[in-house]
Write a structure and sequence with these properties.
Elements (H helix, E strand, L loop, with lengths): L11 H28 L7 H42 L10
Helix pairs in contact: 1-2
Length: about 100
């Protein structure tokens, strides 16, 4: 089997590895987001504090969104890996066509 470009498709195991890496990156992003959140919990009241905390909240939202996008990409890659495994005929690896 070859792709439309004439190249062999990637191996299911390679795609599964990439999916796992993206899931780990999402977990790391969540850990960093928790640290950013903690930084915004300090007791500090001034105009500068408000600006700082607002900036942290924006950063937190972006980090949360990025982690969600990484998880979505990981799930899509896992589905692709499952299809590749099915196509490779690896018993017990894939869960069938999607």
């Amino acid at each position: 089997m070859t792709t439309t470009a004439g190249h062999p498709p990637p191996l299911a195991a390679d795609v599964q590895h990439l999916a796992a890496e993206l899931a780990r990156a999402a977990d790391l992003m969540d850990g960093l987001r928790a640290q950013v959140h903690a930084a915004g919990q300090i007791q500090w009241f001034s105009r500068a504090a408000t600006l700082f905390k607002d900036a942290l909240l924006l950063r937190e939202r972006r980090m949360r969104d990025t982690a969600a996008q990484l998880r979505g990409a990981s799930a899509e890659l896992q589905r692709y890996a499952d299809q590749l495994a099915w196509d490779e005929g690896a018993p017990g690896v894939g869960r069938g066509p999607h």
